[in-house]
Every structure is written in C-alpha cells, then in structure tokens.
Write a structure and sequence with these properties.
The complex is a heterodimer. By secondary structure, chain A is of the alpha+beta class. Chain A contains ten helices and ten strands. Classes of the chains: A alpha+beta, B mainly alpha.
Chain lengths: 258, 385
C-alpha cells in the first residue's frame, strides 16, 4: 500500500477533527456523575452560616484567631507572605471593604472599620460555577460550592467571576509553605484555584465545619437554610441580617448579624 | 506550495532567524514558568488575568481582518478585494493561532487543557469561545488554502469553499461576540458589565484588523513584486475610518453612563483609575492618555480625505489605530476590569520580564506563521503577475 505524505497528513487531520466528537460521545454514552453521593451524608438541603460579629469582637480583640487557625490546619492552607499570592479561605475585612455598598460617612462608630469574617458565600446562584469551563467548580445538592482540584485547569475565570474575592490561585507550589501537613485532607498543586468548601468532608460525616467547632464565642452558627426549625432559620427569622452584595443576584448562604 | 516558504532571499531568512530567536527566548521563559508556576508573572490574587489574556482579547479582534475583506468581496462584489482576500484570511489564521497560544500559556495547568473537551460545559463562555475560535481558524485555513491552490493552478476555486466563506462571515461576528461575553456576563465586575461590550469588540476589531492589514500590504508592496492595489487599500482605509469613529463613540458612551449616572455599578471607579488614577495609583494613566491622543490623531488623518489618500499619512494613521486599540483592549479593558477589586481596593499590575518575553515569543510565533503564509501567497501571486 502506498500512502503519500499529503494524504497521510490529511488523514491525520481528519482523525484530529474526529476527536471533537468526544463531547457528544460522552454526553450520550457517559455515566451521570451527578448521582454519585455519599449515602451516609445527612440530608441537608441548603447549608448556610450565620456570623454574629458582636459575639466575635471581644475575643477577636483579645487576639483570638481560633477559627482561622483551625481552618488552616484542617485544609493544609499554605502560609504565603506575599499578599498578592496569598491563599485565603477564611479571613477578616473591615466593614467598608466587606460591604462597600452599605457604607456611608455617618455609620455607627461600633461598625465603622470593624473586622468582619469573610469566606466563600456558597451562593445559591454561583457565578463561579456558571463560568467554569470544566465543571471543576460545582454546586452540590446541599448547596455547598466545591472544587475538584484534579480537574481545574487553572484558567482563573472563576476568580474573575466571583464578586466576593473568595478565590485564591496557587501561583507556585504551596507545599513548602504548609507548616504541618494533615494527611486527612489533600494538599494542592501549583496552577489550581481553591477556596472554602464549608468543610464538605466533615459535613458528610455529620459534623459542623471546623471553624464553627473552633469558635469559643459561638459567633458562627451553621445549619440547614431549608429546614424551618433549624437554628439558623430561627436566628434569621428573629433578627435583622445583612448579606454581601445582595444586589448581584448571587443569593449568598452566609448571613451577618450586626 | 509549502516549498515556496522554504526558498527566499537573505533578508527573508534573516527575518525568520530573528523570529526564531525571539521564539526560543519566549519558550525558555515558558519552561521556567511551567516549573515555577505563574508566580513568575506579575499577576496576583486581585488582578488574576494580565498580559496573556489581554493579548488574547486584542488578537481576537485582529482576526476580523478576514471578514472585512471577505464580506465586501463575496457579498457586495467589490472586485478590488479579490487580490487580498487571502491576505486577510491568513492574517486571521496567524492571529487565531496566537489567541490559542495565549490561552495555553495563561492557564495554570496546561496539561489539563483537554478537560475543556472531556467535560464540555455549555454554561461557560470559555467553552463557546473555544468552539468559535477553533472553528474560525479552520474555516480560514481551509478556505484560504484552497483559494490559493486554485490560484496556483490557474483554475477557479472549488465551489464548496464558497460555502465555507459564507459560513465564515457570521462566524466572524460570533468570535467577537463570544469573546466579549467572557467579560460582559460577570456580575461583580462593573467595568465589564455593559451591554455594549460585544458592540465595542466588533467596532474595535473592524478598526484594528484592517489597519494591520493595510500596513502589511504596504510592506508586501515594498519587499515583493506583488502590488495589492491602491483601490483595495483605500477601500480598507474607509472601513478603518468608520470603525475607528464608532469605537471612539462607544467608549464615549461608557463615559457618559458612568459619570452622568455616578453609580459605582457602571464602572466609574475603573475609568477614574484608568484615566486619572485612583487612591494614588495610576500606573495605566499614561497609557490611556496615549490611547486617547492616538485615536484623535488617527481620526484627524483618516477623516480628512487629503491625508487618508496619501500613502505616508495613511500608514501613520493605521499605526495609530493599531497601537491605540492595542492599548485600549490589550491593556486597559482587561486589567481595568480588576481595579478596584471586590473589596474596593486598588491592586496594580505590571508584567514581569519573563512574562513579557513569553508574550513577545507568542507574537513571534504568530509573525512566523504569517511570514510563511504570506511568503507562499505572495510568491504565487508574483508568478501570476
């Protein structure tokens, strides 16, 4: 059989083109990964967090950072000094930075400049999930917005889409910056995005997030927003709460008592 | 036909050698980036896209060079463009190859890039951009190559390529629209969240693509025996004129909405940052004023028929259009979108040396592809003359 170089290249090109059929093959013949679920997980419908900063501040002023430290330890978060390349899951921002549209010049002195705990809002309508080109970021049925570190291609579209600055990118290998690696949770590689996962690995075992557990002031209250009798719903129905940037239609699941 | 790219004068090989040298430097820096991560770039938590993605965005616009010669030629029978349709298509091919390479050098995990095909996600605009850009690349390669082959053999091009050309016209609109949608659909980014983003992308594309094509035609005229024809260049110049006017007008619209409404949600702070500086940060101010001055210069030279019809002035005007659109889209638009950040703070961005060298390397790859394609096309056209 004789094959000219020309027709060989043409055939090669045609084969390459055939590869683009792969998505169609996948969608018709693939498994539905959405149905895979931990059967032991408690059937929460939409997990949410209420943050009571009035309870937090006295301890915070004494230097309490228990929730940050517990989170850092549980998730192998690197301690990177360079502010531009920091990995942040849970931290504080002054009121006017966390709630820029709520700030005004006559705001109560008890609020102005005060630190507010910020984290991923686990939005009910998350823009990051919408823009991710590989479904590496996805929303679970219980409302937790999660990341697959092994699928993420590091395009950082989710970082552009997140209106809360809740996402961090591993600009370099994070492992040298982790003080003590906890083998119970994966470390990340350079080139992927990460963020707070509401401790999905603990929630699946029926535990509350590690920051909630660590808080000695009881300032963090975790629960199911769809369950009318849950603690979080009771607080929400009894007291006035605010959300970060509600005007963007993202429907955050993190609420603040002021 | 490929052999024509492998024979050339000393000057031709000298140019190719320079490009190969730049590519080698860029590639070396890229290997370093693969090893160290994007830490070697100037990008940060707050400005998470930089020079790479902004070049990608700008070059999608340059790819419009093809449709602006193909559309008048095939739909309006503008004969003057017959001689240069291939040049427009090949410029689009080179621009699109650069676009895809800029995405590749930007991602943190390039070895996983096929995840975009393995896990197709229609809700993501990146997914549609991948389809739009690779489709337009294929259309132009196939249509351009067959047209050239037909010219080489002195036969009319096969009829089916005409169908591809017709498909390529709306497809060209789609690449700018979908690329604009990458930005225009993000709720928290005030500067990008504007309904005229796609219209702005189309207008600036129709200015920068044909402007570069005019400049390339002048170069071809100087270094070869092929003359693209004065009429074609003048017609392109008219297109560049209209597109530049519309581009400037659209940017004016953004200014009006931002500053008359005074609502922060319409990008007022970003425009302040870009043109005057914000909270003591103003690294891009000088660039944006260079953009404004160049646009005015270009408009003066283009609108006035006395200067537009003179080669020297047209060259200056086209250079001004190209550079100004590069600043506006290739720097201001993408970086501006990240300033101020979601916490209303200003974090500035400046590319690092390796990042710049990688960027130059990708441009050099584009220039090399363009050189080879134009060398083939021009050699064949010289033979016909």
């Amino acid at each position: 059989m004789t094959t000219s170089r020309r027709s060989f290249i043409k055939a090669g090109g045609a084969c390459l083109l055939g590869l683009t059929l792969w998505p169609a093959v996948k969608s018709f013949a693939g498994n539905n990964a959405g149905n895979i679920e931990n059967p032991g997980a408690p059937a929460g419908k939409r997990w949410g967090l209420v943050i009571d900063m009035q309870k937090c501040w006295p301890k915070y002023q004494e230097g309490c950072r228990d929730c940050f430290l517990a989170c850092r330890k549980a998730h192998n978060i690197p301690d990177i000094a360079d502010k531009e390349e920091e990995i942040k899951w849970l931290w504080t921002e002054p009121f006017e930075n966390a709630f820029p549209e709520q700030e005004h010049e006559y705001i109560a002195a008890g609020i102005k400049g005060k630190p507010f705990i910020v984290l991923c809002n686990h939005c009910n309508n998350p823009p990051c999930v919408r823009v991710c080109p590989t479904k590496a970021t996805f929303k679970r049925r219980d409302g937790i917005v999660m990341m697959d570190y092994h699928r993420c291609i590091g395009c950082r579209y989710c970082m552009a889409a997140c209106p809360y600055g809740a996402r961090s990118f591993n600009f370099s290998d994070p492992r040298p910056y982790i003080k003590e690696i906890d083998p119970a949770y994966p470390t990340r590689e350079k080139g992927v995005v990460e963020k707070c996962n509401f401790c999905a690995e603990r929630v699946d075992l029926g535990l509350v997030p590690v920051c909630v557990e660590a808080c000695r002031a009881g300032a963090l209250i975790f629960g199911d927003l769809e369950e009318p009798n849950s603690v979080v719903r009771k607080i929400l129905s009894g007291r006035y709460t605010i959300l970060r940037k509600p005007e963007l239609g993202t429907h955050p699941s993190v609420f603040y008592l002021v | 036909m490929i052999v024509k790219a492998l024979t050339g004068s000393k000057r031709y090989w000298g140019w190719v050698t320079i490009l190969l040298f730049l590519i080698a430097i860029g590639f070396t820096c890229y290997l370093w980036q693969l090893n160290k991560g994007l830490s070697i770039t100037g990008m940060s938590r707050d400005v998470s896209w930089g020079l790479y993605i902004s070049q990608f965005t700008f070059l999608v616009g340059v790819a419009a060079s093809a449709v602006m010669v193909v559309l008048p030629y095939y739909l309006h029978n503008v004969k003057a463009f017959g001689r240069i349709t291939i040049l427009g298509e090949f410029l689009a091919v080179a621009a699109l190859i650069m676009c895809l390479l800029f995405v590749l050098v930007d991602v943190g995990k390039p070895m996983r890039i096929l995840n975009m095909i393995f896990y197709p996600t229609p809700s993501s605009m990146f997914f549609w951009d991948m389809i739009a850009l690779s489709g337009y690349l294929l259309l132009n390669i196939i249509a351009g190559w067959h047209a050239l082959e037909a010219e080489y053999k002195a036969v009319p091009p096969p009829a089916w390529t005409k169908i591809l050309v017709y498909i390529s016209i709306p497809w060209a609109v789609s690449i700018h629209t979908v690329t604009a949608f990458l930005y225009a659909g993000l709720p928290g980014r005030h500067y990008w969240l504007t309904a005229i983003m796609a219209a702005r992308f189309l207008a600036s594309a129709f200015a920068s693509g044909p402007a570069l094509l005019i400049l390339l035609c002048y170069i071809i005229k100087r270094v070869s025996k092929f003359d693209p024809g004065r009429e074609a260049l003048q017609k392109l110049a008219a297109i560049v004129t209209y597109a530049t006017i519309v581009s400037a007008f659209f940017i004016g619209l953004e200014f009006f909405t931002a500053f008359y409404s005074q609502a922060p949600a319409h990008g007022m702070y970003t425009l302040k940052y870009l043109f005057a500086g914000l909270d003591g940060h103003g690294r891009l101010v000088i660039w944006m004023w260079a953009f404004a001055i160049l646009v005015v210069l270009a408009l003066v030279l283009l609108i006035n028929p006395k200067t537009r019809t003179r080669d020297r002035y047209l060259q200056v005007a086209c250079t001004a259009v190209f550079i100004s659109m590069w600043i506006e889209k290739g720097i201001g638009l993408v970086i501006g979108g990240f300033v101020p950040n979601p916490f209303e703070r200003v974090t500035e961005y400046a590319p690092t040396l390796p990042e710049t060298l990688i960027t130059i390397g990708v441009w050099a790859i584009g220039a090399l592809v363009l050189t080879f394609l134009y060398k083939i096309a021009v050699s064949i056209k010289e033979e016909i003359v």
